[in-house]
């Protein structure tokens, strides 16, 4: 496949990352996690004690930060100013602050431009790109667009499990935080989370990862 772009969008906990990585492996493509880029800027802002509600300060930070991303689906990686932050960007503090950072138009402009460069660099191969605005803004020319959803309860359970939580209270808290992040991501003025035109919409509530992957491949005629 020459220059194939697969866009995978959806809310947190919908199974996007797992599905996108598996699609990349199955199709022999590179993989880009755009959420990791917003998380990396957020991590830097928290580390530098920058007020995340100050768009000007956040924009300046994003302007200066140099992000490097690795696009191997088996081992995706992200570094800021040469320092790997793969574990740091997954903390609860970063997760709860990232929507504020991602709502700043200047931050989005900068990261979207970089995402397009990463995509262009994979030609003539191809890449699976996951995020919130891939099929709509970053790569509207993607040949395959997938929008993954799942019930809020199932998404919270998955997130909670990822975080290694066990108690019912933990799941309830994670659900409340997920709800808040969904609301912020869907209501922001700049490139909100939305189903892009022409997307295959899949509800993964009752589907396993292999089932979702098979369904995507089947629908786009790539199954073998
Ligand atoms: O996918 P993940 O949960 O890692 O994304 C973290 C956050 O980054 C999202 O909640 C959203 O605020 C932001 N994001 C975005 N646009 C993207 C990817 C992520 O605004 N393309």
How confident is the prediction overall: mean pLDDT? 94
The main pleated sheet reads as:
5 strands, parallel
Strands, total number: 8
Shape, principal axes of CA atoms = globular
User: Beta fraction of the residues?
Assistant: 15-25%
What structural class should be given to the helix and strand makeup?
alpha/beta
Cofactors, ions, other ligands:
cytidine-5'-monophosphate
Through-space gap between termini: 14 Å
Helix percent band: 40-55%
Number of helices: 9
Spatial order of the strands forming the largest sheet: 2-6-1-7-8
Oligomer: single chain
Estimated radius of gyration: 17 Å
> What is the N-to-C order of secondary-structure elements (H for helix, E for strand)?
EHEHHEEEHHEHEHHEH
Low-confidence stretches: none
Notable characteristics:
five-stranded parallel sheet; binds cytidine-5'-monophosphate; alpha/beta; 8 strands; globular
Describe the 3D structure.
- The protein has 224 residues and is an alpha/beta fold.
- It is 50% helix and 16% strand.
- Helix 1 packs across helix 9 (209-219) and helix 2 crosses helix 4 (92-102).
- The mean pLDDT is 94.
- Residues 12, 34-35, 38-39, 98-99, 102, 131-133, 181, 185 line the site of cytidine-5'-monophosphate.
- Residues 6-219 form the Cytidylate kinase domain.
């Amino acid at each position: 496949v020459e220059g194939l772009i697969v866009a995978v969008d959806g809310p947190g906990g919908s199974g996007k990352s797992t599905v996108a990585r598996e699609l990349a492996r199955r199709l022999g493509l590179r993989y880009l996690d755009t959420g990791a880029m917003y998380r990396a800027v957020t991590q830097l802002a928290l580390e530098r004690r920058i007020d995340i509600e100050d768009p000007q300060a956040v924009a300046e930070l994003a302007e200066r930060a140099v992000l490097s991303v690795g696009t191997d689906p088996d081992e995706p990686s992200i570094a800021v100013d040469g320092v790997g932050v793969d574990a740091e960007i997954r903390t609860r503090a970063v997760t709860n602050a990232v929507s504020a950072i991602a709502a700043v138009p200047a931050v989005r402009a900068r990261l979207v431009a970089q995402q397009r460069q990463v995509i262009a660099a994979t030609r003539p191969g191809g890449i699976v790109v996951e995020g919130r605005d891939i099929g709509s803004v970053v790569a509207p020319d993607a040949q395959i667009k997938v929008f993954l959803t799942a019930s809020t309860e199932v998404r919270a359970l998955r997130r909670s499990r990822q975080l290694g939580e066990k108690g019912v209270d933990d799941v309830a808290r994670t659900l409340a935080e997920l709800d808040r992040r969904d609301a912020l991501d869907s209501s922001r003025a700049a490139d909100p989370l939305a189903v892009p035109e022409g997307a295959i919409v899949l509800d993964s509530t009752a589907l396993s990862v292999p089932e979702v992957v098979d369904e995507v491949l089947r629908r786009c005629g790539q199954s073998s």
